[in-house]
């Protein structure tokens, strides 16, 4: 995963890529480091320690690259989630908790591909009460929506959404939520609803899905997580704070 | 190419609570019984084990244990003037699939419906006269009374290890129980669960206002328990992962570890999973069912002949099968004639969200599915319909079923949906909020019904079930009246801020509301207004019985599983002790 934003700022993806390329690496998919190469066995303890340190700093391949999003799309997602749930004094932001990875994995997987959607025609718009009626899987909707918003940002601000100032990003997402802009393909409320839903899901879901890193969102609200046995606590802790280190499914497996 | 199989005596379609109860009860008959379940097999170990079952995303948000609408869904419209469109993803309600059905992932609330619910029309007419019933309301009595069903309610509670407190023991009112309930012959098999903070506050407030609070009857065992069939339950962990999840402790009663394993011990019983029943086949007279057609996991088609067929799928699935099989006359809203699909009903909700300051700590994540405190002072006919302006009422409760954060992070109305303001509100309110909710009854109306869709089909080429439904004037008044009462209670609880709400009007298929779909194949005394007789036997095809919430003539302000389970025992009794001795109509039309 590329460098993650801190304190509400967001690294411009294209600039980051340029820097990474100049440094001889592709962002998010770093080649094996020389130090860990088997062709160059460690000859003394200092080398071994060096190799170990390099291994520790190497990104985890399970989360270090995007499976679904292309570079434009991942730049949008990173900027969007950083705006929807920014890092601030109250608690962590979605970007630093790995929510971009979460959304990428959801879009690459069964949910994104519409494994639980009825997608037979004919297709009609219907009433709001009749719900989702698009010929699009969640992944197709997100992809088309990103392209739509980037086209809107290009037209209005002469740059993609990810290159906008925080203030302008907030303005675009507010107009999207309030249905005050026009987009080519996606219905505004449906796209915004899915984007926000995915962001909140990734923020609060079990960390094994890629977001909620270190269970930081659970710590922030005081949710104890997957370790859930309260038969001897519900009465003694009535109206009393119950503070524990939250546990995720991986911690307990 | 259809493979015709050897005939069996009894065929059960759908193996949840009702199919499981009937399979188990018919064990001693010595007859060959086959159950066809559209979903897969599953068991507590290994499918519902901790920690994996405590996965909110997979089970609560992605509906892992529920029906997959990719293959089979319904279409929906609010009224006849609209074109129904498919429910393309689950929302308002969550039908189950797989062994145990929705009995695996329910909350465990196990009511006896109020006496009024069983005799809604005659009791209403007796007290208020015909004129109080709106012209388009098909208010209808059950063909049996609460007293007829009492022993079967008792049976189901004992099977489930229901935890609660009686409020009416043999006609004696018991303080602390539900004084509005019908007379019970026995106390609940287990004592009530331990109340959480919000419930304690609700109880005090409700008493201050002159109401009669009592613990929700919960099939989440409050202690280790062995039921009369010898099935062991663990005590509830209050883990807060209950509805939408399987229970790792076997504390939440479920057919998959109670009645179904007992049925499986019968060498004459066979369960076939991933077996999707497409239709019931009738003989040339149309008066007798001869077989069902089903697909196995590979899509191979079979015809399974049987002498007796029990439709025990979900309420909507049963009605779909009846319509696709030509059993009973389909309902026509234009003429009011026909019965299959008639009297579809739902529930209506809303209430008050109560936000407290940081000194009040709810620990809402310590919860059990059915953990809650309730009042029935405005349910059934406990209140004055004329004064309130609505019929049916609802249970008003403060529940504590968990606080899983993807779906539970309450914020006051007007809070931004995102950004720093949203996050601050989530942190400020997460552990300091509870709600007072109304589970409102929905009556049956001429214009609310189920039928076959003319356009859309499922993956097997069958027309989808079409739902035409909206909340009517009575229900809108009901939701508003009950919400006002909820607000008054929340205010009395000392909430710093109270947000009042009702279900979306017009009814919307989108947000989750309730998996309490009822009607469409109702039982009754008159074949002109019912599909089934008092024993849940089809009037028109007497070797077909139908179970589940589709049999209720209208809905109640209470969860349906109690009477659904009781009626399964009632029907099993009738099949075993009446029908099998003399196969044919048990009631003459």
Structure description:
The complex is a heterodimer of chains A (253) and B (589). Helix content of chain A is 42%, strand content 0%. By secondary structure, chain A is mostly helical. Residues 1-44 of chain A have low confidence and may be disordered. In chain B, helix 1 (17-25) runs parallel beside helix 13 (561-579) and helix 6 (146-160) packs across helix 13 (561-579). The model of chain B has no long low-confidence stretch (mean pLDDT 98). By secondary structure, chain B is of the alpha/beta class. In chain B, strand 12 and strand 13 (289-295) form a beta hairpin. The chains are: A mainly alpha (253), B alpha/beta (589). The interface between A and B is large, with 63 and 68 residues.
Specify the helix fraction band of chain A: 40-55%
State the order of secondary-structure elements of chain A, H for helix, E for strand.
HHHHHHHHH
Question: Number of DSSP helices of chain B?
Answer: 13
Largest interface: A-B, 63 and 68 residues
The first-to-last residue Cα distance of chain B is 39 Å
What are the SSEs and their pairings?
The complex is a heterodimer of chains A (253) and B (589).
Chain A: H1 13-22, H2 45-57, H3 71-84, H4 99-108, H5 138-157, H6 166-177, H7 188-204, H8 216-221, H9 249-252
Chain B: E1 2-4, E2 8-13, H1 17-25, E3 33-36, H2 44-47, H3 56-61, E4 74-77, E5 85-86, H4 115-118, H5 120-128, H6 146-160, E6 168-169, E7 172-173, H7 197-208, E8 214-215, E9 225-226, E10 232-233, H8 259-264, E11 269-272, E12 276-282, E13 289-295, E14 301-311, H9 315-325, E15 347-348, E16 350-355, E17 372-375, H10 385-388, E18 394-399, H11 419-429, E19 433-441, E20 449-457, E21 463-468, H12 473-492, E22 497-502, E23 544-546, H13 561-579
Parallel strand pairs in B: 1-14, 2-3, 2-14, 3-11, 4-21, 14-23
Antiparallel strand pairs in B: 4-5, 6-7, 8-17, 9-10, 12-13, 13-14, 15-19, 16-19, 16-22, 17-18, 18-19, 20-21
């Amino acid at each position: 995963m590329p460098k993650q934003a801190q304190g509400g700022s967001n690294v411009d993806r294209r600039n980051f890529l340029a820097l990474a390329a100049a440094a001889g690496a592709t962002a998010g998919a770093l080649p094996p480091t020389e130090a860990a190469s088997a062709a160059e066995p460690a000859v003394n303890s200092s080398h071994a320690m060096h190799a170990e340190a390099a291994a520790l700093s190497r990104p985890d391949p399970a989360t270090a690259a995007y499976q679904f999003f292309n570079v434009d799309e991942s730049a949008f997602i990173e900027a969007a989630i950083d705006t929807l749930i920014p890092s601030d004094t109250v608690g962590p932001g979605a970007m630093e908790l790995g929510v971009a990875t979460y959304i990428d994995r959801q879009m690459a997987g069964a949910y994104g591909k519409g494994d639980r959607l009825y997608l037979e025609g004919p297709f009609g718009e219907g009433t709001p009460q009749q719900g989702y009626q698009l010929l699009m899987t969640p992944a197709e909707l997100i992809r088309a929506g990103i392209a739509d918003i980037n086209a809107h940002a290009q037209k209005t601000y002469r740059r993609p959404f990810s290159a906008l100032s925080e203030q302008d990003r907030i303005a675009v997402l507010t107009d999207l939520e309030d249905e005050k802009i026009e987009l080519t393909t996606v219905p505004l409320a449906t796209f915004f609803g899915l984007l926000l839903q995915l962001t909140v899901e990734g923020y609060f879901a079990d960390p094994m899905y890629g977001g909620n890193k270190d269970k930081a969102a659970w710590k922030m609200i005081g949710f104890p997580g997957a370790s859930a046995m309260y038969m001897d606590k519900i009465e003694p802790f009535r109206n009393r704070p119950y503070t524990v280190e939250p546990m995720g499914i991986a911690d307990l497996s | 190419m259809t493979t015709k199989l050897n005939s069996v005596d009894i065929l059960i379609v759908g193996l949840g609570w009702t199919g499981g109860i009937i399979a188990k009860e018919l064990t001693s008959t010595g007859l060959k019984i086959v159950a066809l379940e559209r979903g897969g097999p599953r068991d507590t170990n290994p499918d519902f084990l901790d920690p994996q079952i405590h996965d909110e995303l997979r089970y609560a948000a992605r509906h892992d244990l529920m029906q997959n609408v990719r293959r089979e869904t319904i279409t929906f419209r609010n009224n006849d003037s609209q074109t129904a469109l498919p429910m393309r993803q689950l929302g308002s309600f969550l039908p189950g699939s797989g062994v145990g059905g929705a009995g695996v992932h329910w909350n465990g609330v196990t009511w006896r419906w109020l006496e009024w619910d069983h005799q809604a029309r005659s009791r209403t007419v007796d007290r208020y006269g015909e004129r109080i019933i709106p012209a388009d309301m098909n208010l209808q009595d059950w063909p049996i009374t609460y007293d007829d069903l009492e022993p079967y309610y008792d049976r189901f509670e004992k099977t489930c290890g229901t935890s609660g407190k009686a409020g009416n023991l043999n006609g004696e009112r018991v303080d602390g129980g539900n004084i509005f309930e019908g007379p019970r012959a026995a106390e609940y098999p287990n004592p009530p669960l331990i109340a959480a903070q919000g419930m304690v506050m609700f109880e005090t407030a409700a008493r201050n206002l002159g109401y009669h609070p009592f613990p929700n009857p919960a099939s989440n065992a409050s202690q280790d328990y062995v039921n009369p069939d010898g099935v062991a339950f663990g005590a509830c962990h209050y883990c807060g992962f209950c509805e939408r999840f399987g229970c790792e402790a076997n504390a939440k009663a479920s057919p998959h570890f109670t009645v179904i394993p007992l049925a499986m011990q019968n060498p004459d019983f066979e369960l076939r999973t991933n077996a999707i029943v497409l239709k019931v086949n009738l003989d040339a007279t149309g008066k007798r069912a001869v077989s069902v057609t089903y697909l196995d996991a590979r899509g191979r088609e079979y015809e399974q002949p049987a002498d007796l067929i029990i439709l025990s799928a979900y309420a909507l699935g049963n009605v779909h099968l009846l319509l696709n099989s030509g059993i009973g006359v389909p309902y026509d809203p234009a003429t009011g004639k026909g019965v299959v699909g008639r009297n579809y009903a739902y529930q209506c909700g809303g209430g008050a969200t109560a936000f407290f300051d940081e000194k009040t700590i709810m620990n809402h994540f310590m919860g059990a599915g059915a953990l809650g405190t309730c009042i029935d002072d405005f349910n059934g006919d406990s209140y004055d319909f004329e004064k309130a302006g609505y019929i049916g009422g609802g249970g008003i409760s403060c529940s504590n079923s968990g606080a899983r954060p993807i779906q539970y992070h309450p914020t006051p109305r007007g809070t931004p949906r995102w950004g720093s303001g949203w996050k601050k509100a989530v942190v400020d309110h997460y552990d300091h909020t509870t709600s007072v909710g109304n589970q409102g009854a929905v009556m049956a109306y001429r214009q609310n019904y189920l039928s076959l869709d003319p356009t859309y089909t499922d993956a097997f080429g069958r027309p989808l079930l079409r739902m035409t439904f909206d909340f009517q004037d009575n229900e809108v008044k009901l939701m508003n009246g009950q919400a006002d009462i909820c607000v008054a209670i929340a205010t009395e609880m000392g909430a710093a801020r109270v947000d009042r709400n009702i279900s979306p009007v017009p009814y919307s298929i989108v947000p989750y509301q309730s998996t309490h779909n009822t009607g469409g194949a109702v039982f009754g005394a008159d074949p002109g207004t019912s599909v089934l007789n008092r024993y849940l036997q089809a009037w028109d095809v007497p070797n077909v019985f139908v179970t589940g919430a589709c049999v209720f003539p209208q809905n109640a302000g209470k969860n349906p599983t109690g009477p659904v389970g009781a009626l399964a025992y009632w029907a099993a009794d009738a099949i075993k002790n009446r029908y099998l001795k003399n196969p044919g109509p048990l009631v003459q039309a």
